[in-house]
Write a structure and sequence with these properties.
The structure holds two protein chains of two kinds. By secondary structure, chain A is mainly alpha-helical. Chain A is built from six helices and two strands, in the order βααααβαα. Chain A has one domain. The chains are: A mainly alpha, B alpha/beta. Chains A and B meet through helix 3, helix 4, strand 2, helix 5 and helix 6 of A and helix 1, helix 2, helix 3, strand 4 and strand 6 of B.
Chain lengths: ~170, ~425
């Protein structure tokens, strides 16, 4: 490796660590749920890997994230531990983002002097996931009885917000 | 500006919201919260007030074939906010990156500069850059702002050349300016021309004492052949051939190399050289001399590409304007039978035509399967070419049949020297 280039070691550790944590959270959730047959669903992860490994790395990572989110949502439908499912999902997001960043840096490598970018990315990612987890935990612990209509309106508002984001950015 | 990454995350969020509402499961909706926080932070960190200035500096504007060229592309953040910048300077397809990287991602503060340093090598051509592709985004690259910042630069890579030792020509007409080609006139050259009776004013060192001894009543003077410059028109045939392939070993590339080498040689010897790149897109350089003229010729040859075939008859429209009458016209072309009338016309108009023809039969033969049919086909193709080129010889056109695996120097020397000595061309043996 060129001596002026810097291996994004921190990002690499974060990507692997978060993906592993995510898998462990989901595994723990399914194990604690007691339905061992459902653990077979976790085989979807290596299956996705096999199916998409010939495609681009970005597609493979996105497919893996989709599988993780699907497994987490399925776990919630099956009344498995919401803490573990949401945690698994959040760490899957962090792992996905770190791995994507790592891929980008492989295409355009970091110089030694570009180290602050990696630090900024990892700090912001930690912040985003931290805030997301915190809000989700608050949501899990505060039980509010809201009418379905209000929730639907809030969901529509969130969707509209996303739409505006795409339309005017 | 959103991209596929943010679209994917948003679709995941929407999917979770819809499934949560459909199943009336609040926990599934909560699953989308980390994603929403991630999107929101990316949105808040997205760049605003972007002002960039870009430029690039190649270490040399003109390079030789496959010579390493260093490039420095720079971007300066002239705005007031800190930006996550990704700069890409994609290479042209025929370029090879030797050192460094042509893309970089970094955090650029106000007033800071980012430099992309890399070294590349390339084949002949005019490489012109107009801009530098810059992407400013949030740290997660969710909301990216793309721009092509103007950063113009040009690098001209000359065609490959072979340094020719000598091209023995016998021109019909010269320009009466001292040069290197025999003018068929008595003068101050080095080659013996003849003997005449001594005339007052002749230098004593030129007296032929042997002749004077034989005829003691008179004095005799040796005469030498005047060496002068000539007008030479180079014609590169850029019509695509069915037998030619692509790449640096192609016959067209060899033709470009031969034309460039001839131009360099003739101009080095002080002659006036004009160029016509004949093909679907014609480019011409009027006759001139000197180093600047050579660079002009190289510039045109660098940009020559093999294009669709057109009849050689169109050459007649250009030859009058470009090349003085009775000058030497040196064609570098794969010969086709239908070109014969044009060669005939050029010869009839007084041009001294020399055809340097890369041999397509010998070029293609090694790539064919080695069986008996191919062997017969090869022999038939060679005979056909022999007959075709014989027709040209009978018109008084000098033919140099060039198997491209042989040195152009040797082939030219042997072919044209024999032409000069014997008055006709010994060019092919079957």
């Amino acid at each position: 490796m060129d001596e002026n280039l810097k291996e994004p070691a921190q990002t690499k550790i974060l990507a692997r660590g978060c993906t592993l944590l995510s898998a462990l959270f989901l595994l723990a959730g399914y194990s604690l749920g007691g339905d061992w047959k459902l653990l077979l669903l976790l085989l979807a992860i290596p299956l996705t890997w096999v199916l998409f490994r010939k495609g681009s790395a970005g597609l493979l990572l996105s497919s893996l994230l989709f599988v993780y989110v699907f497994l987490a949502a399925l776990g919630l439908v099956l009344h498995l531990s919401p803490y573990l499912m949401i945690g698994g999902c959040a760490f899957a997001l962090a792992g996905w983002e770190s791995a994507r960043f790592w891929l980008d840096l492989r295409a355009a490598p970091l110089r030694v002097q570009d180290q602050p970018l990696e630090a900024l990315h990892n700090r912001d990612l930690t912040l985003a996931i931290g805030i997301g987890l915190l809000l989700a935990l608050v949501g899990l612990n505060i039980r509010l009885r809201l009418p379905f209509g209000l929730i639907a309106v809030l969901a529509l508002l969130a969707s509209y917000g996303l739409y505006r984001l795409f339309k005017y950015r | 500006m959103t991209n596929r990454k943010s679209l994917f995350v948003s679709l995941l969020v929407l999917g979770l919201l819809i499934v949560g509402l459909f199943l009336r499961n609040g926990e599934i909706i909560l699953l989308s919260v980390p994603f929403l926080a991630y999107l929101l932070l990316g949105f808040l960190r997205s760049p605003g007030g972007i002002q960039l200035r870009a430029w690039r500096n190649p270490d040399k504007p003109i390079g030789a074939h496959r010579e390493p060229v260093e490039m420095r592309a720079s971007v300066e953040n002239t705005g007031e906010s800190r930006l996550v910048l990704s700069v890409q300077d994609p290479l042209f397809p025929s370029m090879k990156l030797l050192n460094g990287h042509s893309s970089r991602t970094c955090l650029l503060g106000p007033g800071e500069q980012l430099h992309l340093d890399y070294t590349f090598q390339a084949g002949r051509g005019l490489y012109a850059w107009k801009s530098l592709h810059v992407v400013a985004s949030d740290p997660f690259s969710l909301f990216a702002w793309e721009q092509d910042c103007p950063a113009p630069a040009e690098v001209l890579i000359h065609p490959r050349t072979v340094r020719l030792r000598s091209v023995p020509l016998l021109p019909q007409i010269t320009r009466h300016i001292p040069g290197s080609l025999p003018a068929r006139l008595a003068g101050s050259g080095t080659n013996f021309f003849g003997i005449r009776e001594y005339q007052p004013g002749d230098p004593l060192r030129k007296i032929n004492w042997r002749m004077t001894a034989r005829y003691p009543q008179k004095l005799f003077t040796k005469e030498f052949e005047q060496d002068e410059i000539v007008d030479i028109g180079l014609v590169l045939d850029s019509r695509k051939s069915g037998v030619d392939d692509a790449g640096e070993a192609s016959l067209f590339e060899q033709s470009v190399c031969a034309t460039a080498s001839l131009a360099e040689f003739f101009l080095r010897e002080g002659n006036r050289v004009g160029l016509l790149v004949f093909g679907e897109k014609m480019t011409a350089v009027f006759p001139g001399s000197g180093k600047r003229h050579l660079h002009k010729i190289y510039r045109y040859l660098s940009q020559a590409t093999a294009r669709q075939s057109i009849p050689l008859e169109y050459l007649s429209y250009f030859s009058y304007r470009l090349f003085p009458r009775r000058s030497i016209v040196c064609m570098v072309s794969l010969y086709r039978l239908r070109d014969l009338p044009t060669y005939s016309r050029l010869s009839a108009e007084g041009y001294q035509v020399i055809l340097i023809s890369p041999n397509p039969v010998d070029h293609v033969a090694p790539k064919m399967p080695a069986d008996q049919v191919t062997s017969f086909a090869y022999r038939a193709a060679r005979l056909e070419r022999y007959v075709q080129l014989s027709q040209l010889l009978s018109l008084g056109i000098h033919v140099v049949d060039w198997p491209v695996d042989q040195s152009l120097n040797d082939v030219l020397h042997v072919s044209l020297a024999s032409m000069k000595k014997l008055g006709y061309l010994r060019w092919m043996k079957i």
